[in-house]
Write a structure and sequence with these properties.
- With 260 residues, the chain is of the alpha/beta class.
- The protein has ten helices and seven strands.
- The protein is globular and about 45 Å long.
Length: 260
C-alpha cells in the first residue's frame, strides 16, 4: 500500500542532492506535520499535534528521519506498530484469538480501548479474503486491489457540515476504481448524510464510533483505522474541509508511478 498526502510537494533538486549526500535538509512544516511520528519527533513536532507557528514555515530534518518515516507509512508490514499519543495509557488487554493479528492490528485495538476490533472490522473491507492468519493479519490486511485508490478521511460529528462537500470531491475524482473510507466519531448522532450514502454506494466504507467529547480518538488514530479498512493499492488522504480538483487523485498517483 502506498500512501499519498495532500501536503506532498515536489522537492527542489538542491534538497534531493543534499539528501543523497546525507546532509540535513529543510522541509515545509505542513509536510512534516503530516509525516508519521518518527520524522515529526526529529523536528520537535509532537504526535497528532498542531503545526508549529507559521513564522517558521521550514524545519530541519535528517535523511535518516525521512527513511524511518517511509517505513512507518507502511504500517501493515510485519512488526510495524502505531506510536501512541503522549497522554495514552493502556486500559485493556488483547482478547483471546488475537495471536494472529499484526502488530498494527494489536495497536489499533489497544489504543482504541477495545473499540476497534480488527477481526470484526474485517467485514467492512471491500475485498474478499480467505486464508490463514499471520503476516497478512486476520483479514488479509496486506491484500490490496491493484490500481484501486482508497481515499481516506477521519472526521467527527461536529464537522457534519463538510460531509456533502467531501462526498462531492470523491465523486468528482476521475480515477476509475476508487473508494472512500471514512472513520467518524460522534457524541449523540452520526452523520445522517454519510450513513445514507454508505447504504446507497458500495464504494463507500463508513465506520462510526460513539465517543464522549473528552475521550475522542485522535485524528491520527482514526486515520490509522482508515488505513486498516482501505483495500486499494494506493491511499490518498483527504481532509473533510478541503476541496480537491477532479484530477487530484490521478495526478498524485501518476506522479508516484513515474517515480517508481
Amino acid at each position: 500500500m502506498q500512501t499519498l498526502s495532500p501536503f506532498m510537494q515536489p522537492m527542489p533538486m538542491s534538497v534531493l542532492k543534499r539528501m543523497e549526500m546525507g546532509s540535513e535538509v529543510e522541509l515545509p512544516v505542513e509536510v512534516l506535520a503530516n509525516l508519521p511520528y518518527p520524522a515529526r519527533t526529529a523536528t520537535g513536532l509532537a504526535p497528532h499535534s498542531p503545526q508549529r507557528a507559521s513564522s517558521q514555515p521550514w524545519l530541519p530534518v535528517s535523511p535518516q528521519a525521512l527513511k524511518t518515516s517511509t517505513s512507518a507509512m507502511r504500517p501493515h508490514d510485519a512488526g510495524q506498530g502505531i506510536e501512541p499519543a503522549e497522554d495514552w495509557s493502556q486500559t485493556v488487554s488483547l482478547p483471546p484469538g488475537s495471536e494472529g493479528w499484526t502488530r498494527f492490528e494489536q495497536d489499533l485495538y489497544l489504543q482504541s480501548n477495545g473499540a476497534y476490533n480488527p477481526e470484526k472490522m474485517a467485514s467492512h473491507r471491500r475485498i474478499q479474503f480467505s486464508g490463514s492468519t499471520g503476516r497478512s493479519g486476520v483479514n488479509g490486511v496486506n491484500t490490496e486491489i491493484r490500481q484501486r485508490v482508497s481515499i481516506v478521511t477521519p472526521t467527527m460529528s461536529s464537522r457534519q457540515q463538510y460531509h456533502e462537500q467531501l462526498w462531492a470531491c470523491f465523486e468528482a475524482q476521475d480515477w476509475p476504481d476508487k473508494e472512500l473510507v471514512v472513520v467518524e466519531t460522534y457524541e449523540s448522532t452520526p452523520s445522517s448524510f454519510l450513513a445514507q450514502k454508505a447504504k446507497e454506494d458500495e464504494r463507500f466504507v463508513h465506520v462510526a464510533f460513539q465517543r464522549d467529547r473528552h475521550e475522542d480518538f485522535s485524528v491520527g488514530l482514526k486515520r490509522d483505522m482508515t488505513l486498516h479498512l482501505a483495500s486499494g493499492e494506493y491511499v490518498v488522504n483527504f481532509d473533510d474541509d478541503d476541496i480537491y480538483a477532479a484530477e487530484y487523485v490521478s495526478t498524485m498517483v501518476q506522479e508516484l508511478q513515474m517515480k517508481g
